[in-house]
Amino acid sequence: xxxxxxxxxxxxxxxxxxxxxxxxxxxxxxxxxxxxxxxxxxxxxxxxxxxxxxxxxxxxxxxxxxxxxxxxxxxxxxxxxxxxxxxxxxxxxxxxxxxxxxxxxxxxxxxxxxxxxxxxxxxxxxxxxxxxxxxxxxxxxxxxxxxxxxxxxxxxxxxxxxxxxxxxxxxxxxxxxxxxxxxxxxxxxxxxxxxxxxxxxxxxxxxxxxxxxxxxxxxx
Length: 220
Known about the structure:
Elements: E1 12-16, E2 21-25, H1 27-32, E3 46-50, E4 53-55, E5 68-74, E6 77-82, H2 86-106, H3 114-123, E7 133-136, E8 139-153, E9 159-161, E10 164-176, E11 182-186, E12 190-192, H4 208-212
Antiparallel strand pairs: 1-2, 2-6, 3-4, 3-5, 5-6, 7-8, 7-12, 8-10, 9-10, 10-11
């Protein structure tokens, strides 16, 4: 299969992620741009390829390098995720780290007030940055969204929103390598590849979830 003509081909959305290249578009547009061939269109939900040959993605244990590709259906479009070489991955991770640091250094900041500073202090204890390769609930993934608090529906949540029980949970948005899809994961479910926790401020308290997770009550 030939290399894509360019990454701005009409009808194709392209993202050069830290773990690989991601293309999304109609099958005809992806084929015309040289991203895939007709033989790569999955019959079912998704299909994994190595050197252009179909493999069982659930059993494949090899590296997601430049030989690896996954094609997934998304409504009437396809999402194509292609692996990259280790050297290119390292270059992108370093570039992303510098970009984040430069943005943080140069962006003018207004006085956020005392309450916001407390949140920022809590957030500063996050150990991982966007671009880090991790295990999210045991699945290989890349962090695509910075550490933040998110309101989620929880059966025994502390707060009530109409008929729903909710909780504010700190965590990260991660892109799963296997599917190419992004999900929000609580911080205690995200671990570095070394096995280290993704957050440095462990707390304990009443309730089973707070014994294994992270409590926002430390902000109070």
